[in-house]
Amino acid sequence: MSEHENEHTNEQTTKTAAATIAERTIEEAEQPPGAETTPSRRRLERTTLILLGGLAVAIVTAVVLGVAVANANRELAASEAETAELSAQVADLETDLEDVTASRDQYRDDASRVAEREIEVSKREDEVTAREEAITAEEERVAATTLLDGFAYTVGQTMEAGTYEANATGGTCYWEITTTGSNYSDIVDNDLGTRGVIRVTVSAGQDFSSQRCGDWRKVG
After folding, report:
1. HSE-up of 59 (CA within 13 Å, CB side)?
2. Which of 214, 204, 211 is CA-nearest to residue 165?
3. CA of 145: how far to CAs of 36, 72, 132, 177, in Å?
4. Which run of H or E residues covers position 105?
5. In 42, 92, 110, 171, which residue has its Cα 20 to 30 A from 161's Cα atom?
6. Distance CA 90, CA 183 (A)
7. Membrane-spanning regions, if any (predicted)?
């Protein structure tokens, strides 16, 4: 039986008890004045009234308690449903928090790896730049110290003192080292016809020139 049907039954019972008490009161009121009543009858009537009154009070109390219990049960059920819903929401929020935390940790790991990669790339870029600068400096040094075939050079003015070498491919290579200021007439050293790699050392106070030997690269 549902709660609504219980409440309806309790209300009917209360009405029946109240009607019985009313009928009893009317019967007493309709007795003719001066009617004789024996002591036993009066005690019986008094006892009956007391019992009926107690029964009515008990029924009313039971109805009130039943309604209160039903209301309490409904409130408890509603509270339990709300608690269950809140628990489900909390579980969903905890799941979302775990997902967000995992995403955050993954992002931090990715960001850390990216930062490490950027540092590594930056180091490699610095190394490449350093190598390029070294190569450029070497190329500039070679260009600045290379002696071109067919020209005359003076140590300290148009060339550096040191050792030079060339790769003569023909048999007509001629080179000479002369004393500076002698108009190339004071020959210190010379050679003609040597093939392959030729190496010469020119010092301060000397001039150098060559013909058909190729360019001379400073090696020392």
Report:
1. 20
2. 214
3. 159, 106, 20, 17
4. helix 39-145
5. 171
6. 103
7. 49-70
Residues in the chain: 220
Domain coordinates in residue numbering, the chain: 1-145, 146-218
Phi, psi of 98 (to 5 degrees): -60, -40
DSSP state of 177: E
Structure tokens at 46: 């008094």
| Distance of alpha carbon 195 from alpha carbon 197, whole angstroms | 7
**Partners of 211 in the β-ladder:** 174
| DSSP single-letter state for residue 146 | P
Give residue 150's Cα distance to chain centre. Answer: 69
Residue 175 backbone dihedrals phi, psi, to 5 degrees: -140, 155
Place of tokens 């309790």: 10
Question: Is beta strand 196-202 parallel, antiparallel or unpaired with respect to 162-168?
Answer: antiparallel
pLDDT of res. 4: 55
211 sits in which H/E element: strand 206-211
Q: By the 8 A CB rule, do 200 and 168 touch?
A: no
Q: Among 28-37, 78-87, 201-210, where is mean pLDDT lowest? A: 28-37
Residue 198, number of CB atoms within 10 A of its CB: 18
